[in-house]
């Protein structure tokens, strides 16, 4: 069983996301605790919200008091509604939320029937319930519940015993080739990435990008791969390094085999449905791009956004560290495509500007303060599984923002064609440049 835990600030959004499943007959409310009952057992979002309102009103300073959890058994598990109720109850008890108000929703819109639990992480006095080592405790709870309810274990991939300490490349520190080598010699085999664009999204977390190069050798066409270090703006900051210097796993031929295998395996990967639901839930509760990314990071998912020079989003990539797979947004669902996010965040930006203007009109003498600054994303130890021997503190550098990938490395031909068209304006061919 896999658990995903999300913390947010929008209780109405979390409730609306789940209630919509019920309204569309793709879900049902299985159980409630400390929720005000209705005469006919039918709820609206407003009615459900009233049960959480005293807790949220009493909240003293917790910025994200909303708890949104999904519990996902293996598709082969046959879990009854009663078992789902008990699993939810046991899980909440083990995580320290047993006395909180909560609602258990069952979702049946995908092959993997699963449950979502909406609750709050502040108690009736407005004090935050401790969540220290939350991910580790959640994993322990899942393993215990698998045994108790005879569920198929969610096993981790086997470790090789040769795990490395993976760090982002710092082009200023020197020995750039060695830094790049420490990543690309090992990373490709740990993650499923179905294209060069997906591979680059993963590499961008380490300030690296790869480019395909084409040429001729003795009259025969020859393709290869070169790697670059990137700076903070996602621009190339080093000379190119031939893939052959880093071993066969880093080369184009082996990667193309990996892409083909990953593409087939990911078609039937149950992680796809879990990731899709997790992203959709974050879209209903996040109020900004930064908040959306942070919510997903807290659940072990990196978001890499690619934009044109004009700022338009043409690519969305999600890196799920739980299943170790890299997905294009449109690959997951048409409602998670680049265009959808571009329009969504554009509308949010307009609304935020309007709210800011209204605030200034009402209180022109009030200082803006820290609240107007975009919240900095926290670091997460998303690559801990690669490091069996070293202290986990070595992984405090992942920032989840990803990097700006080279314009020629789109993993979606339609998206890349759009990006190229936008880039071509105003560009001239260099004199004598071969076509």
From TrEMBL:
Annotated region Disordered: the residues are 352-377, 416-435
Source taxonomy: Bacteria, Pseudomonadati, Bacteroidota, Sphingobacteriia, Sphingobacteriales
Bias (Basic residues) ranges: 421-435
- Which ranges carry the MobA/VirD2-like nuclease domain? 43-151
Checking NCBIfam families in the record gives: Bacteroid_MobB (NF041325)
Its domain of life reads Bacteria
**What is the protein name given in its UniProt record?**
Relaxase/mobilization nuclease domain-containing protein
């Amino acid at each position: 069983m896999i658990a995903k835990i999300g913390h947010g600030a929008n209780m109405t959004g979390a409730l609306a996301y789940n209630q919509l499943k019920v309204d569309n007959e793709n879900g049902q409310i299985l159980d409630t605790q400390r929720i005000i009952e209705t005469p006919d057992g039918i709820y609206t979002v407003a009615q459900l919200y009233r049960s959480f309102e005293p807790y949220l009103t009493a909240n003293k300073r917790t910025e994200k008091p909303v708890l949104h959890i999904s519990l996902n058994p293996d598709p082969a598990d046959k879990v009854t509604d009663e078992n789902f109720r008990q699993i939810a109850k046991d899980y909440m008890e083990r995580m320290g939320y047993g006395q909180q108000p909560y609602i258990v929703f069952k979702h049946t819109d995908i092959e993997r029937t699963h449950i979502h639990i909406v609750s709050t992480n502040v108690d009736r006095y407005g004090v935050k319930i401790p969540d220290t080592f939350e991910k580790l405790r959640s994993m322990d709870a899942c393993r215990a519940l698998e045994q108790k309810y005879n569920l198929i274990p969610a096993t981790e991939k086997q470790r090789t015993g040769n795990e490395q300490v993976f760090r982002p490349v710092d082009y200023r520190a020197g020995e750039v080739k060695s830094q790049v080598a420490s990543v690309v010699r090992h990373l490709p085999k740990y993650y499923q990435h179905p294209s060069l664009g997906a591979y680059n999204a993963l590499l961008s977390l380490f300030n690296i990008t790869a480019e395909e190069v084409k040429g001729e050798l003795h009259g025969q066409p020859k393709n290869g791969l070169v790697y670059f270090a990137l700076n903070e703006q996602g621009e190339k900051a080093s000379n190119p390094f031939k893939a052959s210097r880093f071993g066969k796993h880093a080369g184009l031929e082996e990667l193309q085999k990996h892409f083909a295998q990953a593409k087939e395996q990911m078609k039937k990967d149950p992680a796809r449905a879990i990731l899709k639901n997790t992203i959709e839930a974050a879209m209903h509760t996040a109020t900004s791009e930064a908040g959306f990314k942070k919510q997903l990071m807290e659940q072990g998912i990196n978001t890499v956004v690619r934009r044109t020079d004009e700022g338009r989003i043409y690519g969305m990539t999600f890196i799920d560290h739980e299943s170790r797979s890299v997905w294009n947004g449109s690959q997951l669902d048409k409602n998670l495509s680049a265009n959808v996010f571009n329009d969504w965040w554009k509308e949010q930006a307009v609304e935020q500007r309007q709210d800011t203007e209204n605030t200034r009109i009402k209180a022109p003498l009030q200082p803006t303060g820290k609240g107007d600054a975009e919240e900095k994303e926290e670091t997460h130890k998303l690559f801990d599984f690669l490091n069996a021997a070293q202290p986990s503190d070595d992984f405090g550098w992942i920032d989840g923002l990803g990097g700006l990938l080279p314009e020629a490395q789109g993993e979606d031909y339609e998206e890349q064609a759009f990006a190229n068209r936008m880039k071509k304006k105003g560009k001239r061919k260099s004199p004598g440049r071969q076509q």
